[in-house]
Amino acid sequence: MAISVPSDISFFVSVHIPKTAGTTLGTILNRCCKYRLLMDYPGYDGNEYFTADPLIAKNRDFIAGYYKGIHGHFNVCRHQSVFPEAKFVAMLRHPVDRLISQYMHELNDPTDSMWHKYLTSGERTIVDMAEHRVLRRAMAQHLEGRPIEDYDLLMLSENMGMSLMLLQHTIGNLHIGTHFGEPPQIPRENMGNKRQRSVVIDDKTKSAIYDRLTEDIELYKKASELFTKKARKYL
C-alpha cells in the first residue's frame, strides 16, 4: 500500500534529544522547509528548558504562519501549551548506544566541559555517566510532560529511511528527493569524524550501562512498538 502524504506541511515541534541523529534531522527539516525552521536551543541551565519563551508566546501566530516548525533541545512542555495544534515529533535511539555516543562526544569535547575533565582524568567512567540523574534518563527528560501515545511520531535513528517516510505522512510532503536526490543522499551530521580519542566498550560494560538506564529503556521499547504499528499501518 502506498503511503498517504499530505501535500501541505503542518506546523510541527521537533524535540531534539542529544546523540539521536537530531542534528541530521534538523538539517533535513531546515532544507526541506526552505530554511523556515525555527531553531530553539535555550540550554539546560534554568527554567527556559521547560517553560515557554515569552517572545515566542507573544508572537505565536506569526511564528506558526511564517515558520514550518520548531526544532531544538528542550522539554516538550516549552512549546506544547503555546502550540497545542502542532504535530509533535522526536527522534529516539537505543539508550545504550545513545549514552556511548554521548560518552565519545564528551571524551573528545575540546571545551572546558565538566564531563570532559572527569573522563580524561579517569575520575569518572562511562558507567558513572549511566548513573547520572540526568544522563540516565535523557530521552525521558525531553519527552516527559506529554503522554508517549500522544506524540504524533516518535522516530528511530536506527531506521532513518522508514522514519522519514512516516515523518512525511505525519507532517506533510517534505520533497526529500528534490532536496537530497533519488535515492536520497541523507547527510550524516555531527558524526564525530574528528575525534582524537576512541574507546571500545566491551559487552560487560554495555550490560552495566543497560542496567542503569531502566527508564529510557522502557521508553524506547514503547516507542519502538508504536513505530512498528505505524509502519505496518501506513507503509
Automatic annotation (TrEMBL):
Alphabetic keyword roster: Transferase
The residue ranges crossing the membrane are none
- Per UniProt, what is one GO molecular function of this protein? sulfotransferase activity
Instruction: Please name the Gene3D superfamilies in this protein's record.
Output: P-loop containing nucleotide triphosphate hydrolases
Q: Which domain of life is it from?
A: Bacteria
Gene Ontology CC annotations of this record? membrane
Does the keyword field hold Transferase?
A: yes
The identity of this protein, by name, is Sulfotransferase family protein
